[in-house]
Design brief:
Blueprint (H helix, E strand, L loop, with lengths): L1 H9 L2 H25 L4 H23 L1 H16 L5 H26 L5 H22 L2 H8 L7 H21 L3 H6 L1
Length: 187
């Protein structure tokens, strides 16, 4: 609980902007799920529901910086276990495992949604960008951090990728939530 309170107290405007962006995208995904509910697109509806939950988790993570908590727990376990010197190897395998699991998960979702409308597939592209960014950030190697944070305007490359991915997902959800031409003609 102390960690959560400390994170909330130290949150910057950029952190809140990220939370807001993720929350808006989650709201758009929820609208898309509602719109797909009565259209016979059950897989799309479940995709948008899952996307809503995932984006809300990312909003929470943006504020609470849960990966830092995970990193600290890993360091403590490595010290207590006596293998702190080998932590880079463990970190490499962790990132490889995480990247493989995320990649495989995205491939399975893409295969399940292969017959979906184009807006769902475009949102999946946004999630691929977001996943790639998060796996790179999980690597937390100094040269990767320098590339992700580089930028003269205060927005590093990582921030641009993250907000681009969020915008793709949100726009896809909003476009998916629009009534189809056949449904518009009936109203």
């Amino acid at each position: 609980m102390d960690y959560i309170l400390a994170q909330l107290a130290s949150a910057k405007i950029a952190d809140w902007a990220g939370v807001f962006a993720f929350a808006l995208a989650a709201f758009a995904c929820r609208r898309a799920a509602s719109a797909a509910g009565g259209t016979g697109f059950a897989r799309e509806r479940w995709f948008w529901i899952a996307a809503t939950g995932l984006l809300l988790f990312f909003a929470l993570n943006e504020l609470l910086d849960l990966q830092t908590l995970l990193t600290e727990a890993g360091r403590r376990i490595a010290r207590d276990g006596g293998w702190y010197r080998e932590r880079r190897t463990v970190q490499l395998w962790f990132v490889f495992g995480l990247g493989s699991a995320v990649g495989l998960g995205l491939l399975v979702v893409a295969w399940l949604l292969r017959a979906s409308r184009r807006w769902v597939l475009l949102a999946l592209v946004g999630f691929v960008l977001l996943a790639g960014f998060d796996v790179l950030r999980a690597a937390s190697m100094h040269h990767v951090d320098q590339i992700l944070r580089r930028g003269s305007t205060g927005f590093g490359f990582g921030t641009v990728v993250q907000y681009t991915a969020i915008a793709i997902i949100a726009a896809s959800a909003l476009l998916s939530a629009r009534p189809s031409p056949s449904r518009r003609a009936r109203t």
